[in-house]
Design brief:
Radius of gyration: 18 Å
Helix content: 40-55%
Number of helices: 10
Structural class: alpha/beta
Strand order of the largest sheet: 3-2-1-4-5-7-6
Shape: globular
Strand content: 5-15%
Number of domains: 1
CATH topology: Rossmann fold
Mean pLDDT: 92
CATH class: Alpha Beta
CATH superfamily: Vaccinia Virus protein VP39
Distance between the termini: 26 Å
CATH architecture: 3-Layer(aba) Sandwich
């Protein structure tokens, strides 16, 4: 099982400095959680980032991967703006040059495997296990669901899936988090940190009482936000107060690294369960 590295505090401080200087929308709380997941997720395989934009999360993940020998971070993004949920490029046609500039500025070019394509295109030739799946691409329901479902079959036992903007004004991330992770017995430990919703892939014990009850309790709280999430900024009066109250009831505070690493630490599943054909489905 993967333990929290003894030098994690100093390494994450260095990685955060790279993240802090890069353009993008990842908060410090979210970035530190993502770096923790990259460093201590107890699974073999690749770190796959879907949606890189200008490289804010990429440089943090790459710093962690290079320091601990995880191999290059796989970053897939067409670096164009075809979707209504893409960040504004302010008249430019691509974020690619700024993305490369961010990598060069942090000296992590060699720690990133860049794919300038749509995630669905990469999925057609993907054949590697995944230890951390970071989804921050197309935030429409169709796009977010496709990103999850295309790469879900490649999750290694014990892998972590993290989805950005679950608690922000988009339909895709919040519904995928509720419907594909919280309501699925393929996942064990789950939670939120800032607007990142995460779950650990543990199909050999996700149906157990301790995991299922926690997941479904969180699912009920998050699901109440689903109808209003895409239009949260338009809410007024009682609807706005109700949304704020329900959102406040969703736990999403900072994560303690030592405690989190213990929660996700797990023994390997029975050999038969590692066979994709024998994995249980809900």
């Amino acid at each position: 099982m993967q333990r929290l590295p003894s030098d994690f505090s100093s390494v994450v401080a260095e990685a955060w400095e790279h993240v802090r200087r890069a353009p993008g929308f990842l908060t410090e709380k979210e970035a530190r959680f993502l770096l923790l997941a990259a460093a201590s997720t107890p699974a073999p395989g690749a770190i796959l980032e879907i949606g890189s934009f200008k490289g804010r999360s990429t440089v943090g993940l790459a710093t962690i991967a290079a320091r601990y020998g995880f191999g290059p971070v796989v970053a897939v993004d067409p670096h164009t703006a075809p979707s209504s949920t893409d960040p504004d490029l302010e008249g430019r046609s691509s974020s690619y040059e700024e993305f490369l500039q961010t990598l060069r500025g942090a000296a992590v070019e060699d720690a990133v495997e860049v794919h300038r394509v749509y995630s669905r295109e990469l999925a057609t030739r993907w054949n590697r296990p995944i230890r951390l799946l970071w989804i921050d691409g197309d935030h429409t329901l169709q796009g977010a669901r496709e990103d999850f479902r295309l790469f879900r079959p490649h999750l290694a036992p014990g892998a972590v899936v993290a989805i950005h903007d679950v608690l922000n004004a988009f339909e895709g991330p919040i519904r995928v988090f509720v419907e594909e992770i919280l309501e699925s017995d393929d996942f064990g430990p789950v939670g939120l940190c800032g607007s990142i919703g995460w779950g650990q892939y543990r199909p050999w014990e996700g149906a157990g009482r301790r995991f299922r009850r926690t997941r479904l309790r969180l699912a009920r709280r998050v699901a109440r936000l689903v109808p209003d999430a895409p239009r949260r900024h338009e809410l007024r009066g009682l609807s706005r107060l109700r949304y704020r109250l329900w959102r406040a009831l969703v736990p999403n505070g900072p994560v303690d690294p030592q405690r989190w690493s213990r929660i996700v630490a797990n023994t390997p599943p029975p050999a038969a369960r590692s066979d994709p054909e024998s994995r249980p489905r809900t």
